[in-house]
Amino acid sequence: MRNKCAILFVLLVLSMLPSFQAASAAPEIQAPEEQNSTSKVASSHESLTLGELRRKYAETFKFRGPQVKQIALTFDDVPDPRFTPQVLDVLAKYHIKATFFVVGQRAVKHPGLVKRIYREGHLIGNHSYNHPLFKNRNLAYFKNQILRTEKIIYNLTGFRPKLIRPPYGEINEEQLRWVKSSGYKVINWNVDSKDWKGLNKEQVKNNILSAAGPGSIILQHAGGGVGADLSGTVQALPEVISTLRSQGYTFVDLSELLHIKGYK
Q1: What pairs with residue 234 in β-bridges?
Q2: Distance CA 258, CA 124 (A)
Q3: Annotated catalytic sites, by residue?
Q4: Are residues 28 and 56 in the same domain?
Q5: pLDDT grade, residue 47 (50/70/90)?
């Protein structure tokens, strides 16, 4: 009797095994469907790309000027006592007005250079307080960075910049909506010298001249981090200016190129 019960128990267990296997296999089959469903939900709420933001906020988010033979030279990450004076000397020699995007933290350390940029007739823009990546930050953080730097620049020049260049050119839609409602403009570029890589004179020059055209906004740097080498920019600048002038281009600051006010 005991053996018969044991046999019946084994048979009962074996008969149930397919059900256990089916149950444990079910999540493995459904998992890709659940993952796809999650991806679809995430993609429907994905942030707009920079290109999409430029199209949606065309009056606020600029990356080039009109198709006229004017070019705007712009220099980020200033002031920097190693490179900013050298760039200013070249611009003065060729009687060119450019646009400099100031980092607030650096302006506090080198206020005399900010005053020199302004005194020599160049346009000053806002490049945040300490150069963070904005796109994954909340609006309060963004506003603090912009308004803190604006106050520093105002204390040094008496003017509040209307032009903002977010570090790395990155910004999200919530931040851009605030920019628009507050009367600012975001200015990126369509020609990248890539000088921040420490490129030599010829490389910087070729990167600019191969891409420059009517209404171009050219990105260069006149300041950098520890160990930065922007000598390529300083050395290339005279030849870039001379070459483009020989092609009939004139150099203007961003307010003139874009027909907007530079200060609030």
Answers
A1: none
A2: 15
A3: 76, 221
A4: no
A5: confident
